[in-house]
Amino acid sequence: MNEQIIHVTDATFEQEVLQSPLPVLVDYWANWCGPCKMIAPILAEIALEYAGRLKIAKIDIDDNRVVTERFNVRGIPTLILFKEGEAEAIKVGAASKSQLIAFIENNL
């Protein structure tokens, strides 16, 4: 796994995401999710390209129900961009790199 991507849990979400000085793109995923696995390498590339401007975090929905329910995640992959502790934008479903970059750029 890319060292630029952090793994968060219900216990670390507040500190790593909501209190982050950088915007954070959170990938809600699960091990059994094919589309989640498809976008993982794309997110790794984006994490490198946006280092210092954007933090990317992954949270396993099966192991972290509190945060998953708090943000009403119903389908995966779900990507939520947080800025200054607030959910700014949501994208549900797999997407190409160009689509993900457009989503990020439109909401940073």
From TrEMBL:
Instruction: List, from the UniProt record, the residues annotated as the active site of this protein.
Output: 33 (nucleophile), 36 (nucleophile)
Q: Does the keyword Hydrolase apply?
A: no
Q: Cross-referenced PROSITE patterns, in alphabetical order? A: THIOREDOXIN_1, THIOREDOXIN_2
For this entry, list what GO says about its biological process: cell redox homeostasis
User: Source organism lineage?
Assistant: Bacteria, Pseudomonadati, Pseudomonadota, Gammaproteobacteria, Chromatiales
The text of the family note is:
Belongs to the thioredoxin family.
- Which Gene3D superfamilies does the UniProt record give? Glutaredoxin (3.40.30.10)
**One GO molecular-function annotation for this sequence?**
protein-disulfide reductase activity
Q: Read off the InterPro entries from this record.
A: Thioredoxin, Thioredoxin-like_sf, Thioredoxin_CS, Thioredoxin_domain
Q: Name one GO cellular component term.
A: cytosol
Does this UniProt record's set of keywords contain Disulfide bond? yes
* Keywords carried by this UniProt record: Disulfide bond, Electron transport, Redox-active center, Transport
This chain belongs to the protein called Thioredoxin
**What is the species listed in this Swiss-Prot or TrEMBL entry?**
Thiospirillum jenense
Q: Which residues pair up as cystines?
A: 33-36
Instruction: Show the Pfam families listed in the entry.
Output: Thioredoxin
Which residues are listed under the site Deprotonates C-terminal active site Cys? 27
Q: Taking every annotated instance into account, which residue ranges of this chain make up the domain Thioredoxin? A: 1-108
Site Contributes to redox potential value: give positions.
Answer: 34-35
